[in-house]
Amino acid sequence: MLLFQLQFLEKQMNFFKYIKAVGTGPKGNRNLDKDEMIDAMEQMLEQKIYPEQATAFLLGWRLQEETNEEMCGALEAFNKYIKRTPITNSIELGNPFDGKRKRPYLFPLIAKELKNFDLNLVISGDLVQPAKNGITTKDTCLNLKLEDNIHFFDRADYFKELSALTQTRKRLGLRTGFNTIEKLLNPGNSAYAMTGAFHKPYVKKYLNLFGAHYEKLMIVKGEEGTCEFFGKSKYWLMVDGEIQEFKIDPEDYGINYTDVWENISMEEMQEVMANPSEELKKLVKLNAALVLVAANRASDLKEGYALLSK
User: Fold this and answer.
1) Whether 46 contacts 78, CB under 8 Å
2) Cα distance between residue 183 and residue 225, in whole Å
3) What b/e string do you get for 99-119 counting C-beta neighbours within 10 Å, with b at 16 or more?
4) What is the pLDDT of residues 9-21, one digit of tens each?
5) Residue spans of beta strands (DSSP E) within the chain
6) 81 C-beta neighbours (distance < 10 Å), count
7) From CA 131, how far away is CA 67, in angstroms rounded?
8) For residues 188 and 122, is the Cβ–Cβ distance under 8 A?
9) Structure confidence by residue, pLDDT tens digits, 180-202
10) pLDDT value, residue 12
11) pLDDT in tens, 214-249
12) CA dist list (Å): 72 to 78, 189, 225, 234, 242
């Protein structure tokens, strides 16, 4: 018992240098190198430190702003623990783990549109994380009847170490670097992926962080951080080493969907999914067309929409 206590104390002291690196202040702060970040993540994921130490590090790291090297190191550490189950012909739809509040998820209806294209949708979810406290993909998948081309991965099963930090993150109550990294963990070994970014600086960050893990990665200016859009939007792709931007305007397709909620309930989402309006059906089709582009089934949004309209 004494030896265990001494070993635990030694690990705590070892982790203190990482807290000091991100939490000393402008004059004393420094960025961690890749190996240091891997070590810090492993200690947190294996809970070799106290929760207070983890939250102190996560808060300081967020305020300091994460570097690409640090984020890549964190993702590399995550990959050591993730249990993957390959889903053929699949695209991962990377959604935030703090949920949605203003509008319903569209992926249950998108899946219906894509039934004839031999394309599977991989959705990852867990208990709600800070800071929005909306309806999660896990809530949605557990409470709706899903098409058989939707494959839901519960993080409590495929990455239990990160899932186990939920309460620690909730006590902190703020977004951290985890919110960025966890959006695309590729539990289905998908070749293609989409995720959302509201702020343009995150487009480059996501492409640099996740791009090498997929044949094609699309970043969408989506609703509430998802890759689903409801009005004018944009998407970005890395083409020949350059980030290219493409515009989306539903009005070009005669679509004008305006329904919005202050805080949508699961019952309201179930009703919308069961009885979608004609405008929502058209909007879903346009979103499905974008998925076809991301999965290399269509060259652009116009072609994708035409394929779905046949």
Assistant:
1) no
2) 10
3) bbeebbbbbbbbbbbbeebeb
4) 555 668 999 999 9
5) 90-94, 120-125, 150-154, 192-196, 216-220, 233-239, 242-248
6) 16
7) 22
8) yes
9) 999 999 999 999 999 999 888 89
10) 63
11) 999 999 999 999 999 999 999 999 999 999 999 999
12) 10, 18, 21, 26, 20
Q: Measure the CA–CA gap between 243 and 117, rounded to whole angstroms.
A: 28
Half-sphere exposure of 149 (CA within 13 A, CB side): 19
Q: Could you tell me the domains of the chain?
A: 2-79 (1.20.970.10), 90-308 (3.40.1030.10)
- Residue identified by tokens 């409470």 is 143
Q: At what angle do helices 34-45 and 2-23 cross, to 10 degrees?
A: 130
Nearest to 40 by CA among 1, 12, 9: 12
Contact by Cβ (8 Å): 154, 126: yes
CA distances, 188 to each of 42, 134, 150, 180, 264 (Å): 22, 25, 11, 19, 29
Question: Which neighbouring-strand residues pair with 100?
Answer: 135
- Burial classification of residue 84, based on how many CB atoms lie within 10 Å of its CB (0-12 exposed, 13-18 middle, 19 or more buried): middle
Q: Crossing angle of helices 34-45/51-64, nearest 10°?
A: 140
Q: Is the dihedral of CA 263, 151, 71, 208 positive or negative?
A: negative
Please enumerate in sequence order all residues whose Cβ is within 8 A of that of 159, keeping only pairs 6 or more positions apart, or say none. 78, 81, 82, 83, 185, 187
Residue 193 is classified by DSSP as: E
